[in-house]
């Protein structure tokens, strides 16, 4: 399904993880996408900190 939605990302891997502790190494992602979650969190700062930790330089947060 992801390949159908994002055909330009031929080597994309999608992961579902905890919003505050993904358990992945720093700088491992070209992009981090949060869908319909930040507005539901009492304190989204931890989630945004984790998302930016995961990003490679020039990575995208969406």
Describe, in plain words, how this protein is organized in 3D.
This protein is α+β, with helices and mostly antiparallel strands and 62 residues long. It has one domain. It has 2 helices and 2 strands; from the N terminus they run αβαβ. It has helices at 2-5, 45-54; strands at residues 29-32, 55-61. The protein has a two-stranded parallel ribbon with strand order 1-2. The longest helix is centred in the C-terminal third of the chain and has 10 residues, at 45-54. The protein is globular and about 35 Å long. It starts with a helix and ends with a strand. The model has no long low-confidence stretch (mean pLDDT 83).
Structural class: alpha+beta
Helix content: 10-25%
Specify the overall morphology.
globular
Q: Element order, helices and strands?
A: HEHE
Distance between the termini: 19 Å
Number of domains: 1
Q: Which strand order spans the largest sheet, edge to edge or round the barrel?
A: 1-2
């Amino acid at each position: 399904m992801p390949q159908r939605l994002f055909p330009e990302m031929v080597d994309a891997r999608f992961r579902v993880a905890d919003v505050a502790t993904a358990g992945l190494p720093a700088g491992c992602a070209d992009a981090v996408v949060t869908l319909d979650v930040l507005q539901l969190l009492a304190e989204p700062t931890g989630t945004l900190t984790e998302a930016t930790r995961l990003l490679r330089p020039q990575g995208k947060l969406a």
